[in-house]
Design brief:
The protein has 330 residues and is of the alpha/beta class. The protein has one domain (14-328): Aldolase class I (TIM Barrel). 31% of the residues lie in helices and 17% in strands. It has ten helices and twelve strands. It has helices at residues 47-58, 78-86, 103-113, 127-134, 139-152, 169-182, 208-218, 283-288, 293-305, 325-328; strands spanning 14-18, 64-68, 93-98, 117-121, 157-163, 185-190, 222-224, 235-239, 245-249, 262-265, 270-272, 281-282. It has a twelve-stranded mixed β-sheet. β3 (93-98), α3 and β4 form a beta-alpha-beta unit. The model has no long low-confidence stretch (mean pLDDT 92).
């Protein structure tokens, strides 16, 4: 079997697939309230095209898949795609990242299709603050979706929280307590320069060390979990009292680029070796243009070989990607 290895020796076995660029909430730090620049449906990869690419990727060593968006639960018949991908020999793990608004009704069909791991994006447990951040009044729906997943036996369930400074501080501790009560890991993600409105500024990033200090002060001491996978995006800690854990995706303050094992496929069929990549490879054009599996595999390998050392967010050389997060895939 070939492997996806870049010139820095990083082996890539984790594929993130966006199934749509559309979303049913409007987090102000992600997209404008009246976003209209979504791809026409004819430009979005079909399930069969996604499955074909996954089979090619498995032949190159990919073992894990995460489905993202936009909001992936907006994609009609998503459980059908999950079932297709779960049946691909070599795929060991399928996960999903969602805002949870539609999760209550889809949790069981997705579970029956083979999905077990799920991350729910949730920045606050306060209804008014949820409405302020997302411009929607859907907090109760999200919480019911989490309840449904717990009742079905999903595991692990994780909550993703974007840490924007001077916004999210009141929610850091309540979310951690919610996670401790429910057996859910809260993952705090440092605010990254991927919004569509150029709101990002380094001074608006709530840093991992500051969040750890808040949790230690309000709940109790934390210790790093031993023997963590160095290629995982989150650094995980557990509370010393033995109740619960939290994770931090510190892409800004503590970049993990040198251990990165992730590659990405956008909803409109472009392959990216990094979330922050400036250039993309048009896989859809190859698939729809009659390219063979071998030709697609060779192009993917060449793309990964050209992967840069890292995104350089903290340097003067940093250039934001030309597409926002919802168009790339979370």
């Amino acid at each position: 079997m070939s492997h996806l290895v870049d010139t820095f020796g990083r082996v890539h076995d984790n594929l993130r697939i966006s199934v749509t660029d559309r979303c049913n909430i409007r987090c102000y730090y992600c997209m404008p309230e009246h976003a209209t620049d979504f791809q026409p449906r004819s430009e979005i990869l079909t399930f069969e095209e996604v499955e074909r690419f996954v089979r090619v990727a498995v032949g190159l060593g990919v073992k894990k898949i995460r489905l993202t968006g936009g909001e992936p639960l907006l994609r009609r018949d998503l459980p059908v795609l999950v079932e297709k991908l779960a049946a691909v020999p070599g795929i060991r793990d399928i996960a999903l990242t969602t805002n949870g608004v539609l999760l209550e009704g889809l949790a069981k069909p997705l579970y029956d299709a083979g999905l077990r791991r799920i991350n729910v994006h949730l920045d606050t447990l306060d209804r008014e603050r949820f409405r302020q951040i997302t411009r929607r009044d859907d907090l109760d729906k999200v919480l019911r979706g989490i309840d449904a997943c717990q009742e079905l036996g999903y595991g692990p369930i994780k909550i993703n929280t974007v840490a924007v400074k001077n916004l999210i501080e009141p929610d850091i501790v309540p979310l951690a307590r919610f996670g401790r009560e429910r057996g859910i890991e809260i993952r705090y993600i440092e605010f990254m320069p991927l919004d569509s409105q150029s709101l990002w500024d380094l001074n608006r990033v709530l840093l991992m060390d500051d969040m750890i200090a808040m949790l230690t002060r309000e709940i109790g001491p934390l210790e790093a979990i031993p023997d963590q996978d160095p290629r995982a995006p989150a650094t995980e800690f557990r509370f010393l009292d033995g109740v619960g854990s939290v994770g931090f995706v510190a892409s800004v303050s503590k970049p993990f680029c040198l251990n990165c094992n992730r590659i990405r496929l956008t909803a409109d069929g472009h392959f990216r070796y990094c979330l922050f990549a400036i250039e993309e490879m048009n896989v859809k054009a190859m698939i729809r243009g009659g390219a063979s599996d071998a030709e697609i595999a060779e192009a993917v390998q060449a793309n990964v070989r050209a992967k840069w050392i890292g995104h350089q967010i903290n340097s003067a050389q940093f250039v934001p990607p030309p597409r926002p997060m919802y168009a790339i895939g979370g």
